[in-house]
Amino acid sequence: MLTGIKLKSQLNASFLKKKFIKQNKQLFGNEIYLRKLSNSTSKKVKIHDSWYLSLKNEFDKEYWKNLSNQIRTLYSKKIIYPKASMMFNALNSTPLNRIKVVILGQDPYHGYGQANGLSFSVNDGIPFPPSLVNIFKELESDLKIPFPKSGNLQPWANQGVLLLNTVLTVEKDNANSHRGLGWEILTNKIIEVVSSSAQNVVFILWGNQAQNFEDVIDSSKHLIISSAHPSPLSAHRGFFGSKPFSQTNKFLKEKSIQTIDWQLK
């Protein structure tokens, strides 16, 4: 958000794009990063150590070089969400060794101020997008948890819920615009790493794009919950009534793992 300027003016003024791009450049710098590596200065992509150690070989591959160059260029020329410093918010919020649940979405919200780097989540004070409204409807139906005041899902991430999108960036007002750039190769590897290195994780796959990753999940040691996407276009085709939240906690309890407190403020 551009401080000191009324929201209506920000949305309508012609200078918004230039100002936003300038902010992106300041945040982005020369690398894709969020935080510095605690014990090294040679980290190519500054994500949480637990993830970097498992993914570092990816960052030498040609697809990553091409992807990162494209993303840097897009941030410099267009309005891209989330802001660059939040691109890897999901990985930084939920270290690999703490994962209990993976909720896999599609791509970030493409509306102004919505995306915060966690799938389906928005920051405090942001109106709920339709998909998030439907998630909360299902949560209420499933566990009798009332609608929260905030759509920020950070408390879930803090408990070990990896809120990951299959594509980590998007152009403003252009849903799925970065599909096929190469993000899916990285997220496929992320899912593969979780499946191979962890035990008894619940993978919640909402929508066709998320379900494309099912083949890399070892169903003999993990629970896979698949359903339609919570979007209004598809929620009535199997998302509503799927009870993903109670299913998740039932599985975790059976495995003697601390369940997720799904209630938000």
Topology:
Layout: H1 7-12, H2 16-28, H3 49-55, H4 62-77, E1 80-81, H5 89-93, E2 101-105, H6 130-143, H7 154-158, E3 161-165, E4 170-171, H8 183-197, E5 202-206, H9 208-211, E6 223-227, H10 244-254
Parallel strand pairs: 2-3, 2-5, 5-6
Antiparallel strand pairs: 1-4
Q: Kindly estimate the percentage of residues that lie in beta strands according to DSSP.
A: 5-15%
Annotation, overall tally of beta strands: 6
Instruction: Give the rounded overall mean pLDDT.
Output: 88
Q: Estimate the helix proportion, in percent.
A: 25-40%
Q: Can you list the strand order of the major beta sheet?
A: 3-2-5-6
Radius of gyration: 18 Å
Elements, N to C (H/E) = HHHHEHEHHEEHEHEH
Can you describe this structure?
By secondary structure, the protein is an alpha/beta fold. Helix content is 36%, strand content 9%. The chain is built from ten helices and six strands, in the order ααααβαβααββαβαβα. The chain has a four-stranded parallel sheet. Helix 9 (208-211) links the parallel strand 5 and strand 6 (223-227). Helix 2 packs antiparallel against helix 4 (62-77). Residues 1-5, 26-31 and 33-38 have low confidence and may be disordered.
